[in-house]
Amino acid sequence: MDSLLHGSRPPAFCPGCSYDRIVHALDRTLGRMGLRDDQVALVTDIGCSGLLDVFFTTHAFHGLHGRALTYATGLKMARPDLQVIVIMGDGGMGIGGAHFQSACRRNLDLTLLVLNNFNYGMTGGQCSITSPNAAVTASGFLNRLDQPLDVCRLADAAGAPFVARSSALAADLPELIERAIRFPGFAVLDLPAICTGRYTRKNKLTPAGIDKEIARMPAYNGLIAHNQRREYGEFYRELAAEQRLVQTPLKIHSVQSPPAREKVEVIILGGAGQRIGTAGELLALAGIAGGFLVTQKNSNDINVLRGASVSEVILWPDRIGFTGIERPGVILALGQEGVNRKKDLFARLAPGALVIGAQGVDIPDCNVERRVVDFRQQSIREQDWALAALALLAGWNTVINPAMLKSALEHRFQGAVLSSVMSLIESVIKKQSIVVG
Amino acid sequence: MALSFLGGNEAIAWGAIAAGCRFFAGYPITPATSILTKMLELLPPRGGICMQGEDEIASIGYCLGAAMAGLKVMTATSGPGVSLCSEQISFAIGSEIPIVIVDVQRLGPSTGSPTLGADGDINFLRWGNSGGLPVIVLAPTDVADCYLLTVIAFNLAEIYRCPVFLASSKEIGQTRESFNLDGVRLPEMVGRQYCTGEGSFLPFAVPPDRQVPDFLPIGGRTPVRQTSSTHGPDGYITTDTSTIGSIRRRLTEKLTKQISDFSFHQSFILPGASTLIITYGVSARAARDAQLILQDDGHPVSLLILKTLWPVPEVLIRETAGNYQRVVVVEMNMGQYVFEIERVLAGKKVDWYGRMDGSLLTPAQIIEVIHG
Fold first, then answer.
1. Percent of chain A whose predicted confidence (pLDDT) is above 90
2. Where exactly are the structural domains of chain B?
3. Following CA atoms A7, A13, A15, A21 in sequence, which dihedral angle do they give, to the nearest 10 degrees?
4. Interface test with A, best of B23, B228, B360, B366 (most A CBs within 10 A)
5. pLDDT tens-digit profile of B110-133?
């Protein structure tokens, strides 16, 4: 098989740089495997290791420092048949740590070569995440402070199923690279290397020294038994094929006539867990069923299970421009936190507005009709108060009617849930005694 | 007529499907998360791919990889996520990678207020890249716009091979609205221009009379080079200043010279008006209400709603502003796009009204400003 090295772009590393050996080892590997240039993509990032793609005639994707694994992930997901080989340095390992960790966890069929020369060669020999504490680097004393990282142990802990460490100068490197490429999953090779341009000018590191250091470190020779599992891409495609297809968004026909065709702003005030947002959505769907145009906005605190919950709904037969609530026509005051959050609204209610308050909720002074409802007395659970309040509105033919509300429920729920909400609203519509003040 | 009831975020997801999006990756962030969840529901059963990245940098990185493999791609985030994506955005600009990026803006600066809206990223989207070359930014005003402009954004990304932003906001993305989905007239779907020529492929060579290079995918039969480094037509690093200069000019002019082809807007021009309101985003809705109220009161003002913000549609703005004595720029931030309007309409009286406190600009406030 021919070489995939570029005829007119020979490797141009510093004399004695191990990366030159890696280029040729990789080329020999691709040749041994009989791969054509269009079957391979080399994905690189910044630094001396990022030069590698230039010397090959394969597909190449050269991007930002530490981000090579991100591009490779998108490429491989889009083109599962492509051999995607990622080349990073110890610098890219540091700045792209989150991507490395995720790639190990994910187990997409990528091959990662970490060209590990213990420093940032291109920027002047600063320390990297693999620099030994004793090394002299361009980062002064800083290098003595941080613990150097063992790429293999990290890969193992993060879930990589194939991890190996080998000197970049090892004679059998092509065989190892081939095993990594042939492995059907994420394969990591940590390749300690010599940087003559920077590192070995101030530090003694020989090929024998690299071998000695590798022998001292935990041995990694390929398969990690406890990390074996399915390859991500294949597994993804299998699960994706099982997902239910949603053809189009829900469409609601206007089939009912509303009690009145006029603009009304409704605000539902409660607390987390009271299904305030769902009630707002149901009111909006009921409005659409009644021929209104509607908008709905929910606001909640960031803590999902605590704090105020507010839903604002505007129903208007005509276009809705501004989506804020200016003069509410109906307020459903079902929880103190929501009421406290929107106190100012009670001072600017629309003429003829209606406030429905749950028994026990303090309602600010306001000059409109107020009805107090004792949901507890009717054994209605707090999470159903908002729906029950909508049923009251429907029963009074205020804003919506029972047919509109039922239509909304039918759009939103199915099966047992639908029967249960239907029976709840029917019982509320019948029992007007629920209103106690 | 049947109406759908969707938030802006969901409408963007449906728009992406309508546009032929095949790959989405995102990272959860309020108020953009529901785009990720919707795409996860819509894409995989259609044979597409939706991934949750380990962060926003990864998410857009996956997208750039998939885009170079030939897929139509989108990511969605909010201001803090756009900050993280910045370096990748610069890459997509300089290396001509088509991508749609949704910014569901939230109140900043920084982590700010996840659940409050603002149009605070408008200049950031344009200028938040290294090198300062142009991007396209489209700004929806409502849910129907989210659907339509997403399809347009994909088309523009393919045609011009560049990042196209949708500058939505919490107030659009998370406001649900009834609208007639089937009533939105979508443009014809545009694909990437593939190289069909014989011989060696130069990934950044531009055919005569065109400004955008032909595409071939990484992973196809012809090896393709992509690089974030300063490159010549062959995709290899170059230090030749005339090559570099001509590519920078082309990257600029491929957008700025074609802006009249995609100056999306709505104008409501009233006879007898001496004032023109220029606005964008959710504030356009309040401005339209204000215009209608003022008209009823016998005080006509005209209104220009910009839906393409970048490159600045200078000709449109100049021609619309024509003979108006006064222009009022209304925007939900502390003053950003007004500087473009002042630049384009140099010499004209340009007033500004804006606020950034988590509440919407109201029609009443806009009317007050108009009355001065």
1. 93
2. 1-262, 265-371
3. -70
4. B228
5. 999 999 999 999 999 999 999 999
**Contact by Cβ (8 Å): A309, A270:** yes
Contact assessment for residue A359 and residue A375, using Cβ atoms and an 8 Å cutoff = yes
CB contact under 8 A, A253 and B2: yes
What class, spelled out in words, does domain B265-371 have in CATH?
A: alpha beta
Contacts of A157 by beta carbon, 8 Å cutoff, 6+ apart:
none
Nearest to A38 among B53, B223, B362 (CB): B223
On the question of pLDDT at A432 being above 80, the answer is: no
B371: tokens are 């009355």
Side by side, the strands of the sheet bearing B326-331 are B265-268, B302-306, B275-279, B326-331, B349-354
Please check whether the two domains, A18-240 and A264-434, share a CATH topology.
no
CB pairs under 8 A between A and B: 227
Strand order in the sheet with A40-44: A221-223, A162-165, A187-192, A111-116, A83-89, A40-44, A59-62, B225-227
Fold of the B1-262 domain:
Rossmann fold (3.40.50)
Topology at the third CATH level for domain A264-434: Pyruvate-ferredoxin Oxidoreductase; domain 3 (3.40.920)
Starting at the edge strand found earlier in the chain, the sheet holding B175-179 runs A251-253, B2-7, B175-179, A293-300, A308-316, A264-271, A330-333, A354-358, A369-373
State the Cα–Cα distance between residues B82 and B310, nearest whole angstrom: 16
Among chain A residues, the shortest Cα distance to B90 is held by: A64
**B169-228 tens-digit pLDDT:** 999 999 999 999 999 999 999 999 999 987 789 999 999 889 999 999 999 999 999 999
- Residue of chain B whose alpha carbon sits nearest to that of A249: B4
Of B3, B69, B363, the CB nearest to A79: B69
Question: Residue B81, Cα to own-chain centre: how many angstroms?
Answer: 15
**What separation in angstroms does the CA of B296 have from each of A60, B272, B290, B292?**
63, 13, 10, 6
- Does residue B289 carry a pLDDT above 70? yes
- Say which of B2, B23, B364 has its CB closest to residue A74: B23
Contacts of B64 in chain A (CB under 8 A): 63, 70-71, 74
Cβ–Cβ gap B223/A82 under 8 Å: no
pLDDT band at residue A435 using 50, 70 and 90 as cut-offs:
confident
* Paired tokens of A132: 């030994």
pLDDT of A255 reads 87
Tokens encoding B21: 């999006």
| Residue extents of the structural domains in chain A | 18-240, 264-434
Q: Which of B43, B86, B146, B177 to mutate to test the interface with A (most CBs of A within 10 A)?
A: B177
Collect all residues of chain B within an 8 Å Cβ-Cβ radius of residue A74.
23, 25, 61-69, 73
**What six digits make up the tokens of A170?**
């090892």
Those residues with Cβ within 8 angstroms of residue A24's Cβ, 6 or more apart along the chain or in another chain: A5, A11
Query: Domain A18-240 classified CATH 3.40.50.970?
Result: yes
| Cis ω before B109 (30° cut-off from 0) | yes
Its pTM surpasses 0.90: yes
B223 and A60: CB-CB below 8 Å? yes
Q: How far apart are CA B189 and CA A315, in angstroms?
A: 34
